[in-house]
């Protein structure tokens, strides 16, 4: 945003003490998966810019005996053309068996920005003695601002597929490999590839994030955009401009983490600004109580890449208040934020800040209308699955705001079409009240759960390895499986599995090291089970 920071600034930051954890190397088993994954962490591969990883996959594929390149176009621009399809024919008793398809995506969410490569990867032991793999400064274990995304989502999937192609114990089985692009933005590779490329009808997606769980259904979704107009005015004489920032929030996946009580930085700032706005919350108090103020809004923005599938973890607003109220406002803001930290566990790393700057503002009416609109826009869980109260059916993530062209973006998810339509109608009605138009885009289908031979065999394998009677569930997130199942009219058996990854899409992303080995054992055992000949 335009504006000049003055030398005298008020800086208010809160910190918490955390126990010291032991830093280790980045090793984990199997070695082949580790080595491929570590190579991927050195290569630039944000969504839509995966060419360095595409080239690496092809370098590896061309060295593996028996692997045939079915589709690879090094110059392709369209995401559907930028996918990679590899096959290794069966041999011996399995020469005529149908293929099993393995699928992963080659892109990753880059947080805090795209300038994080090569990733700085390390291991550490938690307080219970478990080893985790992470990226960023070692201090990021307790301070997410010093961390980056790791890219285990879905670099571990890509590395696992390459290791399986190299595994001599699996060389007789017919394997088809499907590597996609742009999963983290619009699932463009899975949505637009030519359906004639795949011939396998047992399809294993390796992009799940809980090692002892099998996913066999996922939510559909769409993006929602509010568009309106604002009136500007000059800041009244004698007013002071202050920049308020909220950061250090957990953020996280806007589907998987939407029901875990995590704060949305845009919503936090909105509630603060409404509470301190005298026209909306008229509180004239004496003594130590928090007051309200003649407040004008200058800007409000998310201070990170506006990724729709990530809960905003940092945001800032610039406001104007009477100059004589500055000291009192700063004190009240401090008290409010300290109380918010106590009331909003597990957000103990919340950081707040005030800086004095100069800039013009919105007028009073636009300030108030925008804040009230942001307050009313749905965020969080809307509805749970009937009869399964632990599973989210419908949710929305308030993802971004851009005052320059007055756009507000949200990301909806639902496994039920009627509930999705009802949510969109609510959003449109709220927009109409404030004279904002509301439209939708980038919709993707749900993956309706169904029983299958693949699921049954996976359940048997997981029961043996993880001792779970029922390891299958549906997930409140968009998976590429939804496009694949839709493309083949449901005539394909599909599951999604993977090792344990915590806090994907954030600077706290970490991979539980020992689950990579058990996951590899599970997926290779499942492949062997699928090709087991009946006596």
Automatic annotation (TrEMBL):
Pfam families: Peptidase_M20
Source domain of life: Archaea
Molecular-function GO terms, alphabetical: metallodipeptidase activity
InterPro entries the UniProt entry points to: Peptidase_M20, Peptidase_M20C
Cellular component per GO, a single term: cytosol
GO biological-process terms attached to the record: proteolysis
Full protein name: Aminoacyl-histidine dipeptidase
């Amino acid at each position: 945003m335009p504006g000049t920071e003055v030398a005298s600034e008020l800086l208010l930051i809160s910190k918490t003490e955390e126990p010291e954890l032991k830093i280790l190397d980045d090793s984990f088993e199997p070695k082949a998966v580790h080595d491929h994954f570590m190579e991927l962490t050195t290569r630039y591969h944000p969504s839509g810019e995966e060419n360095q990883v595409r080239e690496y996959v092809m370098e590896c594929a061309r060295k593996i005996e028996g692997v045939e390149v079915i589709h690879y176009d090094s110059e392709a621009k369209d995401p559907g053309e930028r996918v990679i399809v590899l096959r290794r024919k069966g041999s011996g008793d399995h020469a005529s068996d149908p293929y099993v398809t393995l699928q992963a995506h080659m892109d990753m969410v880059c947080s805090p920005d795209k300038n994080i490569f090569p990733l700085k990867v390390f291991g550490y032991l938690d307080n219970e003695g478990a080893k985790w793999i992470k990226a960023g400064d070692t201090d990021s274990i307790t301070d997410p601002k010093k961390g980056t995304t790791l890219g285990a989502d879905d670099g571990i999937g890509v590395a696992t597929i390459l290791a399986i192609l190299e595994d001599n114990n699996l060389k007789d089985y017919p394997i088809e490999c499907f590597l996609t692009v742009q999963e983290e933005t619009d699932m463009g590779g899975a949505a637009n590839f030519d359906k004639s490329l795949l011939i396998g009808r047992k399809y294993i997606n390796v992009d799940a994030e809980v090692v002892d769980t099998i996913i066999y259904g996922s939510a559909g979704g769409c993006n929602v955009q509010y568009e309106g107009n604002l009136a500007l005015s000059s800041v009244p004489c004698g007013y002071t401009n202050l920049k308020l920032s909220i950061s250090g929030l957990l953020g996280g996946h806007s589907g998987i983490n939407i029901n875990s009580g995590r704060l949305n930085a845009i919503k936090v700032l909105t509630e603060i600004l409404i509470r301190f706005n005298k026209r909306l919350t008229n509180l004239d108090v004496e003594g130590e109580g928090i007051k309200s103020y003649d407040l004008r809004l200058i800007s409000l923005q998310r201070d990170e890449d506006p990724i729709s599938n990530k809960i905003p973890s940092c945001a800032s607003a610039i406001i104007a208040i009477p100059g004589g109220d500055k000291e009192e406002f700063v004190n009240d803001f401090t008290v409010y934020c300290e109380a918010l930290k106590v009331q909003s566990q597990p957000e103990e790393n919340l950081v707040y800040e005030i800086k004095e700057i100069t800039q013009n503002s919105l007028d009073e009416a636009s300030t108030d209308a925008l804040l009230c609109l942001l307050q009313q826009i749905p965020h969080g869980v809307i509805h749970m699955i009937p009869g399964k109260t632990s599973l989210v059916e419908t949710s929305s993530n308030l993802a971004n705001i851009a005052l320059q062209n007055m756009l507000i973006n949200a990301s909806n998810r639902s496994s039920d079409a009627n509930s999705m339509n009802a949510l969109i109608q609510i959003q449109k009605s709220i927009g109409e009240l404030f004279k904002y138009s509301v439209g939708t885009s980038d919709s993707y289908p749900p993956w309706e759960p169904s029983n299958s031979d693949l699921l049954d065999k996976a359940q048997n394998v997981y029961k043996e390895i993880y001792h779970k009677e029922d390891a299958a569930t549906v997930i409140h997130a968009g998976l590429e499986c939804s496009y694949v199942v839709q493309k083949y009219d449901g005539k394909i058996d599909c599951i999604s599995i993977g090792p344990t990854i915590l806090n994907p899409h954030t600077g706290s992303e970490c991979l539980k090291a020992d689950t990579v080995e058990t996951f590899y054992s599970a997926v290779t055992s499942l492949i062997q089970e699928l090709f087991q000949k009946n006596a």
